[in-house]
Every structure is written in C-alpha cells, then in structure tokens.
Amino acid sequence: MSLKIYNVLSRKKEVFVPLIEGKVNMYVCGPTVYDLSHVGHAKTYVSFDVIARYLRYIGYDVLYVQNITDVGHMLDSGEDRILKKARQLSAGPMQVVETYTRGYFDDMDALGVYRPDISPRASGHIPEQIAMIQTLLDKGFAYEQDGSVYFNVSSFPEYGKLSGRIVEELAEGARVNIREEKRHPADFALWKKAEPEHILRWPSPWSDGFPGWHVECSAMAAKYLGQTFDIHGGGIDNIFPHNECEIAQSEAAHGEPFARYWLLGGSLTLDGVKMSKSLGNTLTIRDALNQWRPEAIRTFILSSHYGSPIDFSDTAVEAANKGWQRIWGAVSLVREQLRTADNGAAGPEVSALLEKAKADFIKKMNDDFNAPAALAVLQELTRQVNTLVNEHGPHTTGTLAAIDRLYRELGGEVLGIIPEQAESGGSAEREDGLIRLLIDLRAQARANKDWALSDQIRDRLKELGVALEDRADGTIWKLA
Prior knowledge:
Number of helices: 14
Number of domains: 2
CATH superfamily of the largest domain: HUPs
Strand order of the largest sheet: 4-3-9-10
Radius of gyration: 27 Å
Structural class: alpha/beta
Strand content: 5-15%
Shape: elongated
CATH topology of the largest domain: Rossmann fold
Helix content: 40-55%
CATH class of the largest domain: Alpha Beta
Largest sheet: 4 strands, parallel
Order of helices and strands: EEEHEHHHEEEEHEHEEEHHEHHHHHHEE
Number of strands: 15
C-alpha cells in the first residue's frame, strides 16, 4: 500500500510522490523562543517527529528543517515578543533567545524528539530575507512606505488558497494590525522600520529595521530545501495568516510552487480550555515531565491523529500511561526471559504473528500517518505476546529476540515509546525493582507458611493494577 497524505492545500488525501525519488525535503515551523515550551509544542513536534521517523523507516532520505524564530514575531500590540520578555527579565534580547532556545531543545530531547537536521535562526538569515524582499519589490508584488515594506495581497490572485480566506471579505483588523501606510488591511509586513527604542534592528536598503515574521520561513525554506519542496508542517493555528503569507510571497518571488504537501497539526486544549497566559492555564513541558514519563506523554499525543485536536488532562494522560505500561510490561518480560532462554529459532506461528502485526502497523501508518491506529496494533500485539509468553512458555532465544526486535522497530524506531533499555534509576526500572522486591517478600512468606502476608501482598498489588502469576519457574508480574 502506498503512503497517502491528507494535503490541506488540496483538501484531500493524495498518494505521496516526492520531487526526487527516495528523498523527502520537509520544513516545519519552529518555536518563537521567548518563553518555556508548553504541551502544545509537545503535541506539534512529537507528531512531526513520528512523521519524520516513519518516512525514514520506510526508506526515505529525509532532510528535516525546523526554524527558530528569534526576531519579528509581533504581538497584536505591535511589540516584538522577545523584546517584551527581555524587558520583563531586565535582560538582553539575545540572552532571552539563548536561554529559551536551549530550554526548547532540552525539552524536546527529554521527550525523545529527534533534533532536526537543520535548525536555522531568523536573525542569522537577514541577508536572504532582504534579497527576497527586494525581488518582490522588483516584481511589483510589494511596496515601500516610509521605510517599511509590505506585500500587496491584491497582486497575488491565489492569496487565500490554503486557508480558504477571500481577500475581499477580510474585515478591518482581522488578525492584522491596521496601519495607515498599508493599502489593504490584509497586506502584511515584509520589513518594518524600527522605532528609535527598538533594539533588534539591521540595516537594509529601506531603513534600519527588522524582517516580518512570515518572510523568515520563506527565505530559510528556500535556502535549505529549494524553491519547491515536498512537505510543509506546522500547527493549524498558523494557517492564517502565517502559512498563507508564506505561500504568497514565496510563489510570487520565485514563480514556482512552494510546498507540495501541507500537513497541519490539530490544536491542543488544557482541560477543555485553550491555553492562555492571561488565563493562567499553560502547562510547560518540564512541569508535565515532572509528573509523567516522556513515553506516557508521547503515547497520549499519539493516541490522537496528528491533524485532530486533543485535550490534555490528568485523566487522559494517566490512561495513556497505563496503556504504555502494559506495552512496556510485555517488553520487559520478553527481555528478562531472553537472558535465560534456551537457544533456538522462532517457530512459524510466532513468525506469522509478528509479520502480520508489522504489516498491519505499516498499513495504518501509510494511511496519513495514522498513529492512533498503529498504536492499537501495538496494543493488540502486546495482548498476544502476553498470552504467548505467559501461557505457552518457556520460549527459545529466537522467538523472544524476534518479538523484542519488532517492538524496537515499531514502538522504538517509529513511535519513540519503547526505550532501548530502562534508564538506570529511571521510574520504569524502579517500578520493576519494587514489584520484584514484593514478589521476593511474598515468596519468603510462603516459604514460612505465612499465608496471610502472602495473600496481602498479592491482593494489594492487584488493587494497584499488578497481577501476579505463579509458575513452575517462578512468579511473574504483569499489568492487569
């Protein structure tokens, strides 16, 4: 089955055919680094991490570019987000940028998100942005007004083709700051003349100023991926005006299509409410990681399709955590038995079971990267593995190694929820160690014929969702 992608630009699923056979060039809008990353960022970047992982898994050579916005992202008030944060902290703007850029990558590393191949900064690509703006002026798609440069949306008839917005119907003030020097309320800034107090500024042919937010992505995408590339990703919240403006200025400047496939991730709410600093209901990634394992957060995110909205709540993440624990419990059991298993090849029934699971997983992921369905395949595999290992053991090294290998591929390499091994001192290892300590204490109680204590340990563990099974070769545990 060929990989099919829902293309927001065409509003339909399409068979994915890259520009260059075997190679995928992908650009994803990155964060504006003026504060700690929150769980909404986790939703976006875990989703595109899995997309990039899967493309590589099925054999594509992926060049993944994700920008860092460190200038030009303005508040509705017209103030640069980074300059506002710098003022609040009594710090320099680049000090703010460095602090939160490092914080962003630390958070992504903790979530198991692979780093992009290239992470260009907007402030490091001012010459490319100036050159693109000059091209738009030369071609008549932009105009200068008092040192600032604006894109003329009426000069680009296809403006609105991604979001479905119609220029003539855009109301005054709709998602844009209305300024007297603009010819149309939808015209957007390519270059802004800096006010005397504005610190982030560069010389240009028009004024000392700074680039507009939208032109940054267009210039950096073209530099590293070419004027036309395969996949553009990001959050649905940026479809208008940001993504729409990217398309207009890029295609006007180059005369070529911009991104061929648009993949936009659904939004995330927190307990049913959109996150907002003014409401005080934001949750940072590091605070979330203080409460849950990274694999649990990833499992929660992957329980919803990348393009669908999702609500982050303690109940939902805890349910995802229990689902992950079931999978990890099976993996741990397989790896433990593998240490002492007798040599031998995997039997045909086991091989057939694993081949079917892999084929089902790929089929689901080929359907627009359907991670929830792929996760369900892994959960069904876990049910079958638990039955196989617990009821039909002991098994040979070939059988156990084949099971472990498939978990590493599908759950580890693609979904990123199965670690190579439990981190030393990590919560999974501590959990296993504590349960085994209780199993040993129960075995000692049984040897002493202290049946009351033995039953108490078993029953309390059962209340916590841990089932014990006494076998001839010892007691094993699994999540109930």
